[in-house]
Amino acid sequence: MTGSEDRSRADETRARLLEAAVAAFAERGFHGSTTRDITSIAGLSTAAIYVHHRSKEELLYQVSLAGHRDTLATIQAAMASADDPVDQLIAVMRDFSIHHARAHTMARVINYELTALSPEHQREIKAVRRVIDSEVRGLIERGVAAGVFDNPNPRMAAIALLSLGIDLARWYRDDGRWSPEEIGDYYVDLGLRIVGARKRDG
């Protein structure tokens, strides 16, 4: 077997373990899940987890870091898709909501199991969360400065907007009443109301 095949197999195993960890943590919580639970879901031996990860906590950290970076990238891409603050907010709310609905299992883990991370890993994840908050708050502030948003507290408004998407992870189900796209459209309307978006002429 070549070195590239070894790396490919190792990458595949790591990915299986991360997916299994998400499933286990979402169902049982971090503290209620064992390494045996994770490897059983992944279809691997219990020892496999320690070949690729130092601990169960490191698995949660890797899941959390990837999930938060993905969320940040989603928000930044949505903002880059338009120039006007109103259009940017529409894109952010739609994409952020759809993203959380489609990845609701991972979102539930990374948002509700943060306290299980080590202090060092918590600091790193919280740093990414601060960037996410700063991006949304900055968007609202630009809208207020441009006169297209009427909101006295952009910081609180940003928290409210982000909370809408985060809470999706708590209640959304794949077989539920609304599709991710329907939720995205509805949350766009809620978001515009929260920031006090002024109606456009025409």
TrEMBL record:
* DNA-binding feature ranges: 34-53
Q: Which domain of life is it from?
A: Bacteria
Where do the TM regions start and end? none
**Cross-referenced Gene3D superfamilies:** Tetracycline Repressor, domain 2
Indicate whether Membrane appears among the record's keywords.
Answer: no
Give the signal peptide as a residue range, or say none if absent. Answer: none
UniProt xrefs under Pfam families:
TetR_C_24, TetR_N
Q: What is this protein called?
A: TetR/AcrR family transcriptional regulator
> Which keywords has UniProt assigned to this entry?
DNA-binding
> Which residue intervals define the domain HTH tetR-type in the entry?
11-71
